[in-house]
Write a structure and sequence with these properties.
Layout (H helix, E strand, L loop, with lengths): L4 H4 L2 E7 L7 H12 L4 E5 L17 H12 L2 E6 L8 H13 L7 E7 L3 H13 L8 E5 L5 E2 L2 E2 L2 H25 L1
Bound molecules: flavin mononucleotide (FMN).
């Protein structure tokens, strides 16, 4: 059988939770998705979201921002899980994305996004629009999980329908990454 080098290659994924809360559902989802990834995927969780300085249109890019840019650039795909605060995307997440705009970090980058909260549909729509603005490659890799706390237990997704939807999102995301690699050849 012919070996498919693209499918066998290591895939690097950077995962970002838009919540800084201890026991965050979104951070739990990020961790949980890491456990669903096939063995040829290397899964990194971004851990400096809360340390990024407030965005300003500065000529000088802080080292921590350059590090964020580098991590996004080196990833084959980025997964973002976010709650909704006051009908919008959390400030810390929007702040990180604002820094990435000028650097072009997300340009044509395969991105999967999950919005999870009480409703989180407005943050969902808002983040999709922002990802479109920065030319991220989302395609169908977007999922809204309302009433998230009733669908999880002990950091794991326990609701069967949600579990299937998350697995489906992961499958689409990995296909998008492979398609993006193939297009780059
Ligand atoms: C200040 C604040 C504002 C919130 N606003 C919304 C909102 O507009 N829409 C929504 O669906 N949930 C809202 N929520 C509920 C969060 O979505 C919910 O707490 C969620 O579990 C937070 O995500 P996390 O568990 O990952 O921290 C709000 C929560 C807080 C603390």
């Amino acid at each position: 059988m012919q070996k498919d080098p693209i499918k066998k290659d290591i895939i690097n994924i950077l995962a970002i939770s838009g919540s800084l809360r201890i026991n965050s559902s979104n951070t739990s989802i990020v961790n949980f998705i890491g456990s669903l990834m096939p063995t040829h995927c290397k899964y990194f969780i971004y851990n400096e979201l809360g340390d990024l300085p407030h965005f300003n249109d500065a000529a000088e890019i802080p080292a921590i921002v350059n590090r964020f840019h580098q991590q996004v650039t080196e990833a084959d795909g980025v997964l973002i899980c976010t709650p909704e605060y006051a009908f919008g995307v959390p400030g810390v997440l929007k702040n990180a994305i604002d820094w990435a705009v000028g650097l072009g970090s997300f340009d044509r980058k395969p991105v999967a996004m999950i919005s999870a909260g009480t409703g989180a549909d407005k943050a969902h729509a808002s983040l999709l629009l922002t990802l479109q603005a920065i030319n991220a490659d989302v395609k169908d890799a977007a999922l809204n999980i309302p009433f998230v706390r009733s669908k999880m237990n002990d950091g794991k997704i326990t609701d069967e329908t949600t579990l299937k939807a998350v697995q489906n999102l992961v499958d689409i995301f990995l296909k998008n990454i492979i398609a993006s690699r193939e297009a780059a050849y």
